Every structure is written in C-alpha cells, then in structure tokens.
Amino acid sequence: MADLPTRALARGFRLAAVPAGFVGRRVIGLGKRVGGRPAEAIAAEVQARTAEQLFSVLGQLKGGAMKGGQWLSAMEAALPEQLAGPYGEALTKLQEAAPAMPIRTVHEVLIEQLGRQWRTRFAEFDDEPAAAASIGQVHRAVWRDGRQVAVKVQYPHAGEALATDLRQLDRLVPVLRVAVPGLDADDLFGELTTRILAEVDYEQEAAAQAEFARAFRDDQDFVVPGVVHGAPRVLVSEWVDGTSVAQIARHGSPSERDRAGLLLCRFLLSSPPRVGRLHGDPHPGNFRLLADGRLAVIDFGSTLATPAGWSPRLTAFLRAGRERAAEDLIRQARAAGVVRDSEVTDQALLDLVDPLLEPLRAEQFTFTRPWLRGLTTPFSDPRSAISRTQRRLHIPVRYLLVQRVAAGTTGVLCLLGASVPLAAEAAAWLPHFGRVED
Description:
Layout: H1 8-34, H2 39-61, H3 63-74, H4 81-96, H5 103-114, E1 122-132, E2 136-143, E3 148-154, H6 158-169, H7 173-179, H8 185-198, H9 202-215, E4 222-223, E5 227-231, E6 234-238, E7 243-244, H10 245-251, H11 254-275, E8 277-279, E9 287-289, E10 295-297, E11 303-305, H12 312-322, H13 326-335, H14 346-353, E12 365-366, H15 369-380, H16 385-392, H17 400-416, E13 419-420, H18 422-429
Parallel strand pairs: 4-10
Antiparallel strand pairs: 1-2, 2-3, 3-6, 5-6, 7-9, 8-11, 9-10, 12-13
Helix pairs in contact: 1-2, 2-3, 2-4, 3-4, 6-8, 11-17, 11-18, 12-13, 13-14, 14-16
C-alpha cells in the first residue's frame, strides 16, 4: 500500500525543499539576468516554478502540511499583487486537485472499510478521482439504488501524517509566546490538534453533515448533500454539481461573485441558530454555486457545536464596536476575558476593532484585496499602536474556531470582490444585533 510519509524527518525534508528550491532558482535567475534576460520575466518564472513546487510538495505530503496550504489559499487576497497570481493558482489547486493516491490503495481502503464485496454496494464506481484534498480523495459513483454519489476515501495513515505535522508546529509555541503574550499558546495548539485530528473521523463528519442536511432540506438558498453511508475512513454522500467558489472568484461574473459572497455569509451566520453548529472550514473549495443560484456545501469535517446559537455576549461586543461605544465595548471584552491588562484603554480597544467592523456599518460593503491588505498592515507591524494593543489581549481558546471562520470568510469575500449587505445578514441571525442601545 502506498502510504503517506509520516516520519517527522522525511516530512521535514520535503517541506525544507520548498525554500531550498526557491534559493536555487534565484541563483539561476541571477545567471539569466547576467545573460541579458529582463528581471521581470525572470522573477515571474521563478515565482511560477516555486508555486508549482509548493503545490507538488504540499499535495504529496497531504496531512497538516496540505491543510496549511489550503488555509493559505483562503487568505490569498491578503498576498501582495506580485505573489497573488502564481501562488494563488497553485494554492487553489490544493483545494480540490491534489495529487491522487494509486487506485490500488483506494481499493484496499474500500475493502478494509466496506468489506471485500464493496463493489456490490455500487452500480458504478469511477476509479479516476474527481477531487483530492488533505485527508482524502473523492470518487464519483452510482449507489446501488441509482443515486449519484460522492465517495470520499481517506488516505492511509492520514491521522499519523496530521499528528506529525502538528508536532512540527509545536515548535512555534515559544515564538508565539513572545509575539502574542496574551495568547495561551499551549492551549491554542491543544485545541488546534483536537479539532484537526477530529477531521480524520469520517463517522463524526457524517453525523455533522446529516444535521446540516436535515436543517437545510428543501432550502431555497442552500444544498447540503445527504449522507448515504458512513464508515471511519469512507464517507458516501449524494453527489452535487456546481462551480467551486474558487473558480467563481477567478472567472465568475460580478453577479455570480456577489451571489456566492452573500450566500456564504448567510450560511455561516444562519447555521448556529438553525443547526446548532458552526461550519468551521470556509475555504473556497468547500462551496459550489449551482446553476439555479443555490450554494452547495460539501465538507463538514470541521464544525463547532453551538446548541444555544450565537452567544449574546458576542453580539453585544459586535454591536458596541459597530456603534463605536468604547466604554460598552471594553466592558463586554472584560466580561468575556479578552481584556485583562489594565493598560488597555477603551479607546485603544476601539481603535483596534474599528476597521475590522467597517463591513457591519455599510448598507452594502464591497470586500476587496486592497482593503484587506490595508487592514492587515497595522496588525503585522509590531511598532504600531494597534499591534501593541493586540499583544496585550488574552484570546480564550474557545474563540479559536470562530476567529478562524471570520478570518477565512473575510479572505474568501475579498477573493470574490463581493458586494454584500453584511449588516442586514448579521441583524437577521445574531440576537438583538439590529437593536441600537438608547
């Protein structure tokens, strides 16, 4: 059986090959410049070849390394212009077209999970994968009752590969303690490890997907494919066609991009009150825009239980920030445990969140790459007042997934360049969000 490389040394060498290859190409590029080729053409060639190597290495490693690449693809809008093109194309491939595992390995997993007579469950089974991602790849098939289905087959030792990559990330804990003193880095990586490893459990994913499918059955805006069969490493769901949001962002019309952005926001905002769960992985490959204008959601490996819907405290915090009510804002932040440092003033906290909440003040907000890049600059500059305030905040681990969803969704909306009535959507789904304090 062709296994994923799971040893830390082997995976580390492959990851190290990306920057090493880049350095080598820069040296070759210098030689070409001496030979008379334009610097711009050489730079473009170096970036394109490095991007292709990035796709190849992360795709072959799969596991946590590839999930990191997929996460970067959702944040492509924040990349500088000279990198957004070649790296964006390569990272988009990671969303749904990673290098496939051999068909012999696929069959071995199917035998292990569904029994030696697994083919009797299907009227047809296409050995050519329709998509391949970080933990498993998808094959198109026809279930024995005639339904078109998607069969997600997990890579052998995917859990071990994820665990290895996560252990490599543990090395960042000391760095994070210095960079973000208010963040409990040990708890952060513990929570991250728990959530990522949960994605290896396809039975757990099937249960979550079934909850979403029941809540959104016959919905006018959304399609969640029903679960046909679940096993620990094989998940069979109803097949859905459509154009991925990644492709809509690159080739869609303005109306398609706006529609995809609106429905993405509506799905994520409405899920906690409607389903009692938050979808936790808003990268573009998990969403499809159908011909009839509905949005299909196809991956539920990462979700967060929200049995009471959205937290009223979160709503109160957002409402205070939207209204620029500094005293109320810091009161809500202290109650949530986000602000513990007495040196954080109400004005400093407002200055930090004010630009982040700009989309909630406009009747219709257009998300753009320049807006996102301008937003991220002061946060990444350790000399800025906003960065200093951010380092004094305490980020409870329970907010980790919500922050990931908010950041990832913002990145996707900026990729789309979508114009969205976000304030109206928030008012529809967040408790009392539309109410303005007297």
